[in-house]
């Protein structure tokens, strides 16, 4: 996250020092973007939209290092900044959008889908493991793309990317519409759908269990796999440490000794390393 803030401050300093007309920021910028977006949507011709945009050269420029965007709510290990119809009015009617992912060590762009567009994604300054599945009956595809290699995710496919390295990495994603949309799978399943329906769909695991999982789902970009965290010497907040596992097992064994059942291992816990 330090790298993201550093890039943002550098961009702001460059703009101020170069004497460039600074773009409005914060709430004023949002109001101007919203007003322009509404006008562009109402304008039926491409020429008319161009004339609206041409009232300021700033309307043709999108800064992926804008501190306003980088300070928006995001996960513990990075952020994805999107230039779409919602944030960059110049894309409206042009059938394009773009996202730039700033991923910390082991950062995971969580499983998600774009309902209205395919995606072409290129890795920068690192290697990314990716995975995707398109529909029932399809085969899950996974591989690794290195710096300046790219891959494609079909529209509506569930996919993810994870930074494999212990240093920050980036990606650039291009879309074939100005409004690709995004649905994160875990929050949609465990937080948005009724807990009893989700419980039944998962073999009746219990409503409380569904709610417990929902409470632990992080924002994107999240910490990635435990193997990567161990390699990089990182610890995710709230994870099961060896000490926490040992304590939970002792508590469970104490509980079991109170009844007629014999104490046994608590199978639901991860295995601690020696």
From TrEMBL:
GO terms for molecular function: manganese ion binding. GO terms for cellular component: extracellular region. Its main location: secreted. Residues 1-22 form the signal peptide. CDD domains: cupin_OxOx (cd02241). SUPFAM superfamilies: RmlC-like cupins. It comes from Exidia glandulosa HHB12029. It comes from the Eukaryota. PROSITE patterns: GERMIN (PS00725). The keyword Flavoprotein does not apply. Residues 62-211 form the Cupin type-1 domain. Belongs to the germin family. It is found in: Secreted. Keywords: Manganese, Metal-binding, Secreted, Signal. This is RmlC-like cupin.
């Amino acid at each position: 996250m330090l790298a993201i803030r550093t890039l943002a401050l550098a961009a702001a300093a460059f703009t101020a020092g170069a004497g460039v007309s600074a773009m409005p920021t914060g709430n004023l910028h949002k109001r101007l973007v919203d007003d322009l977006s509404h006008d562009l949507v109402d304008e039926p011709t491409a020429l008319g939209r161009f004339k609206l945009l041409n009232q300021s050269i700033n309307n043709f420029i999108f800064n992926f290092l804008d501190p306003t965007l980088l300070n928006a709510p995001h996960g513990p290990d990075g952020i994805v900044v999107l230039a779409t119809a919602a944030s960059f009015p110049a894309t409206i009617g042009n059938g394009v959008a773009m996202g730039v992912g700033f991923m910390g060590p082991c950062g995971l762009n969580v499983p998600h889908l774009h309902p209205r567009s395919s995606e072409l994604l290129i890795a920068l300054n690192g290697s990314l493991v990716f995975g995707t599945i398109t529909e029932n009956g399809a085969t899950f595809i996974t591989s690794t793309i290195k710096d300046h290699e790219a891959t494609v995710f079909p529209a509506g496919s569930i996919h993810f990317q994870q930074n494999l390295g212990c240093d920050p990495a980036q990606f650039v994603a291009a879309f074939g519409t100005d409004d690709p949309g995004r649905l994160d799978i875990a929050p949609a399943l465990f937080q948005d759908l009724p807990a009893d329906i989700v419980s039944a769909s998962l073999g009746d695991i219990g409503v409380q269990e569904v709610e417990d999982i929902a409470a632990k789902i992080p924002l994107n970009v999240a910490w990635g796999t435990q193997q990567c965290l161990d390699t990089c010497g990182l610890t995710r907040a709230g994870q099961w440490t060896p000490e926490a596992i040992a304590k939970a097992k002792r508590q469970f064994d104490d509980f079991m000794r109170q009844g007629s059942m014999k104490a046994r291992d608590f199978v639901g816990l991860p295995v601690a390393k020696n």
